[in-house]
Amino acid sequence: MSAHGKHKRLTTASIRQMKGEARIVCLTAYTTPIARLLDTHCDLLLVGDSLGMVLYGMDTTVGVTLDMMIAHGRAVMRGVEHACVIVDLPFGTYQESKEQAFRNAVRLMQETGCDGVKLEGGEEMAETIAFLVARGIPVFGHVGLMPQLVHTAGGFRSLGHSDAETQKIWRDAIAVDQAGAFAIVVEGTVEPLARELTEKLAAPTVGIGASPACDGQVLVSDDMLGLFTDFKPKFVKRFADLGPTVSEAAAAYADEVRSGAFPGPEHTFQVRRQSPSGK
Ligand code: KIV
To answer: Please, what sign has the CA dihedral across residues 222, 111, 140, 36?
Structure first.
């Protein structure tokens, strides 16, 4: 507990200091109950715009809005006492200008109480990142595979297989690092490049599909919990198999409702009569 009676959560500065000391554990969270379950085990919780695909069934993250991120950011903040919480700036809310990015990052921070924002982009976003950081907004960078660019990048695939790709990711990561990001997501990137970036950058790298060479790892929680039965990219390890468990529970419920076995007497309220004396 702090002097104000609140639990002290990890800060973006403490996450940065973990570089070279301890691996950073990060998972996505979008709701209060999941945030409560993950909180003590994670250093960082990311309210990622992946929620558009995971929770809302969108094909890409492009349709996610700032209001959606604010609603889920607030929900996650109600469930945390330990982890540092970062909320994604969604597509179209920061790329226009550094002023637009500042305005929307301030909304995210003021309306959710989160510790910082994440945005995708390399060289082209460096000026914006520096602008935000200089004005008190911690920024989690994101280079390599950038899902918000799916329409120009031509799909989701691992990167760093050609010299041109490698050099571009290098330039992006260096620019984001020099702009002052407190940490950088490296997504979908071959191992040698992820290793070199991790060695070279001042900021810790948090990998997703970017090998064990990174300073930390992030996964979409629903992926690692096995909630999707039809989706398992190479970089995801299922630490649980909740999809079939949920489906079996729903089937058992349906059977009992149809047969009349549920609800039983133990789930049923009966009238409690008071005695005439009122005792
Ligand atoms: O949106 C997201 O959840 C992310 C992580 C997968 C890094 O950006």
So the answer is: negative
